[in-house]
Design brief:
The protein is built from seven helices and 13 strands. The chain is of the alpha+beta class.
């Protein structure tokens, strides 16, 4: 009985876990460096905490179903979607469920989680804050409450470690996933690498003879032709890790941005723009790592992989690797002045 929390505290615990799960989930989509692996691990631990809280929450749900409310069907939909996104995440982590209804399992997990956000907000308001069902009380910081929280946290960590050990020990496909959750596809074979674009940008038709790269830096504005860019043959081996759940190691050939751009003393960011209107802004200290690639695996880029020129951004997720680049600028605008994820 000591470890079984009252319904209100079970709701509070689940809400906190879901908030942390959402935050770490967003951060996992953003991280591309192994230094950020702890975020993905934290997200997995949150998933295990949800699993441990299900028995306690089920008692609350059963009690609520005894009261006739029209809104209970929305609550049941919320519960069903929460269980579905949990199952989709676990299935993708093991590698046993790589796709759902023809869509990448990771994207299904993310999409359903985003649908849950307004439902959770409504549920917290209707069942919690408005009815004072989950408002904090002084007793929530009692020794017993803190002990319960500690047991759930330790149990979630242990369950996560056990699940990872089982995945490895059983030789499941999930043992080969990257720290981001992505699976290897088409490494060193550019023709086998999936072609995806953020928000489904269509592949543009570009005439290489008419295409120009517009540049603005400390030397002013100028334009370069594709022939001028392809005269450079700097090679970089980098991993493209797409947020749709795959990664691919490739050898890229092109021109380093540090060689191309003349630094401005007050520049704070590098703005990279695509023919499609898509753009991102990098911190100025990233410039030494960025490459304007014209080839992959020793062959010119294909149209769906960014021909004539794409950006290679080692250590960043795929949505930073701008395809079909047509403009680069050094700007005084700070790099953080942009949406957390590109919108166009």
């Amino acid at each position: 009985m000591l470890l079984r929390p009252p319904g209100r505290q079970a709701n509070q615990a689940l809400l906190v876990v879901l908030l942390v799960a959402f935050g770490t989930g967003v951060a996992t989509v953003a991280t591309g460096s192994p230094n950020g692996a702890w975020v993905a691990i934290g997200h997995g631990i949150c998933g295990m905490a949800v699993v441990l809280l299900i028995p306690w929450k089920s008692r609350v749900v059963r009690g609520g179903l005894r009261r006739a409310r029209l809104s209970r069907w929305v609550s049941l939909l919320l519960a069903a979607l929460a269980l579905f996104t949990l199952a989709a995440g676990l299935g993708y982590a093991t590698g046993l469920v790589r796709s759902i209804a023809g869509k990448p399992g990771l994207w299904v997990h993310i999409a359903v989680a985003l649908v849950l956000v307004p439902l959770v907000v409504w549920h917290v308001w209707a069942r919690g804050i408005r009815t004072r069902g989950i408002r904090p009380r002084r007793t929530d910081l009692s020794r017993r409450a803190l002990l319960r929280a500690g047991v759930v946290a330790a149990g979630a960590v242990a369950l996560y470690a056990a699940a990872e050990s089982a995945i490895t020990g059983l030789g499941l496909p999930g043992a080969r996933r990257r720290f981001t959750g992505s699976y290897e596809v088409g490494s060193f074979r550019p023709e086998a690498m999936p072609a995806t674009s953020w928000l489904l940008d269509a592949v543009p038709a570009i005439d290489p003879e008419r295409w120009r790269l517009s540049i603005k830096d400390g030397q002013g504005r100028r334009e370069l032709t594709l022939a001028q860019l392809t005269a450079n043959d700097t090679k970089v081996r980098a991993t493209l890790d797409c947020t749709s759940g795959w990664y691919s190691h490739q050898d890229w050939t092109g021109l380093p941005l540090a060689t191309l751009l003349g630094r401005e003393g007050n520049a704070q960011s590098v703005y990279v723009h695509s023919v499609t209107g898509y753009w991102v802004r990098f911190p100025i200290h990233d410039m030494d790592r960025l490459l304007l690639a014209t080839q992959a695996g020793g062959a010119p880029l294909s149209a769906d992989h960014g021909f004539p020129v794409r950006l290679v951004a080692p250590g960043r997720r795929g949505y930073w690797w701008v395809k079909w680049v047509d403009r680069i600028e050094l700007q005084t605008t700070p790099s953080w002045w942009q949406p957390p994820f590109p919108t166009g």
